[in-house]
Amino acid sequence: MVRFRKAKKESLPSKDRAKIVLWQIKTVLHCHFPGLKEQLKSLPDPRIGVEYSIEELVMAAIVLFLMKCDSRNDFNNKTSDKQFCKNYYKMFRLYAPGMDAVNYLFEKIEPDLFEQIRCQLISNLIEKRVFHKLRFFEGCFFCIAIDGTGFYNWGANPPESIRPYALKRETKKDSEKDSEKETEKKSKKKSKKKPEKEPEKEPEKEPEKESECGKVSYCTQVLEAVLVCNNGMVIPLISEWIANDGEKNRKQDCELNAFKRMAIKLKKHFPRLNVCILVDGLYSNVAMMDVCQQYGWKFITVFKDGNLPSVWEEVELLLPVKRAVGTCQKTPVDSTCWITCSYRWIKDIEYQKHRIHWVECVQESENKKTGKKSSHRFVFLSTLDVDENNVENIVNAGRARWSIEDYFNTQKNRGGVLHHKFNRNNFGALKIWHNVRQLACMINELVEYTQQLSQLMKEMKKMTLKELWKNLNAFLSMCDAEDITDEFEHWAKERRQVRLE
Hints:
- The chain is of the alpha+beta class and about 500 residues long.
- It is built from 19 helices and ten strands.
- About 45% of the residues lie in helices and about 20% in strands.
């Protein structure tokens, strides 16, 4: 009990933790997004006889995701509290509307307008050189990871307005019965006994035709492009929906086709951005290489066994030739393990008029305390010129592609509510809700990687971000934020900047 009380006194109270998070949110909005309200105000308003302004409605949707609410109803429950509404107005100088009014606006307005605002805000951050110190290759290019994820599962009966855009999926039934029948047929062929019984079993083939197609379901998927930083931060850039166009007698959309459309958008919104694309083994093909060559982009793709057999054949032929293979060994610093990384690379492999380089890394680690050993192998294809100086950066950038998977996990299970349907009848409104979610997630990423919040997480090792945001929501509902807002307005009069960890 004594130890528990001492630890309790030394820990920072939840009220103070909430104040730190609230301060960092206001700081990021003030320093990185000073013109956000004006951009929202410039949106065309299709409504007639309005009670809330358009910036109040859109800002409320952003705050819904900033506070990591589970649904529209969850945010409505918060705004029903008078203290929360007072603090909301002090924070953003806007009134808190109901989410039904926000959803009604999203059903009337064009989705592309929100995509333009999102890309414009990111362009401003790039021009301010916010991410320049966080690049894997100094003075060169930005690494952009691209991958798709499941978004909504509509089941067997989606709404009629969603069905033309949803992807149709047919699940096959268990193949155990089919395998048993095949084994029985093989045994009968070998034994060749009583052939008269064979025609009696022919009628059993009719139900097999019905079992070829299993359950039919519909889903919606999205392709995401995110900016990957060397400190682990992930900034969502642009989204492209893997969805049908609503017309009949057309092939279903796929991830590779969505990648081609996304490349056009990336070049349109970020025409001067020097880019290196990070993708998984699905994109180890000529189509991806042609797109990158067309726009002058570099790429690093995961190269799995079985992908591009002709390239693997050439690699296996050149590996025994010492002059054709570059090698080096490096020992990264780690506080828990002894790590040794062995690198091999083969340059100037020609494939379909493309010149690519093969890179391999074998990482062997040994735990300093337990002595447990482990080994991992990573193989990539890239258009970056490889040598001893940059091979480690190329492998680190290629492995950083996995951060987009962790980003999807964050949006699904750590407050992003990716699978929740904020609108069930309008596909355009779904796109807008997703764009607003990505904008809020970008703000939260910048907040979580500020120096003050990172220092707080280090000091309180058992504290999670989820718990911090619970403290923030409780503070806004039970305490008065006037002291913080007054102090922040006095602090913001001078020119300030946000430093990232």
